[in-house]
Amino acid sequence: LWFRLTTGALVAWALIGCFMFLQQVRLGADAMGRASAYDRALYAALPNWYVPLFAVAVLSGLIGAVLLFMRRASARPFLIASLGATIVQFGWLFASTDIVARKGAGETLVLPLVVVGIAAFTLWLVGHARQKGWAV
User: Fold this and answer.
1) Contact assessment for residue 24 and residue 11, using Cβ atoms and an 8 Å cutoff
2) DSSP per residue, 33-73
3) How far apart are CA 74 and CA 54, in angstroms?
4) What are the Cα distances from residue 31, in Å, to 34, 40, 73?
5) Is it the case that residue 29 has pLDDT exceeding 90?
6) pTM value?
7) Which of helix, strand or coil describes residue 98?
8) pLDDT of 82-125, one tens digit each?
9) Per-residue DSSP letter, 133
10) Distance between terminal CA atoms of the chain?
11) pLDDT at 39
């Protein structure tokens, strides 16, 4: 029961990620609310690969979460792709911009750390499920 509830919550989390991606594509810098001039400049300066990488992160995460919910060990490569894309995405943002200095660590680091933590947990869970024989 806990596995079903957990993997169901992970599918819901992945759907939220897909929604956030669509919001960013649709609304740009205003996706998280009214954007400041800094937010608009930051969004305009994103490299061409940033949005497609975001798509890889959320879509592979969703596929992986659904496969894990279905007890399929084949979720692993999708979850690895999602975690890798997420780390590159946030890594670039924090290494190449002054967002933390401008907005503060509390505002900028919490959500990325939660996202990476959940992605890492999901990847661990597929390995655990495989060891226990829950995922084939």
Assistant:
1) no
2) SSPPHHHHHHHHT--TTHHHHHHHHHHHHHHHHHHHHTT-T
3) 21
4) 8, 11, 34
5) no
6) 0.90
7) coil
8) 999 999 999 999 999 999 999 999 989 999 999 999 999 999 99
9) T
10) 18
11) 86
Q: What is the mean pLDDT of the chain?
A: 93
DSSP state at residue 32: G
- Cβ contact 62:18 at 8 Å: yes
Quick check: 54 and 112 in contact, CB under 8 A? no
Which residues neighbour 17 within 8 Å (Cβ) at sequence distance 6 or greater? Answer: 57, 58, 61, 62, 115
| CA gap 57, 80 in Å, rounded | 10
Exposed/middle/buried for residue 136 (C-beta within 10 Å: 0-12, 13-18, 19+): exposed
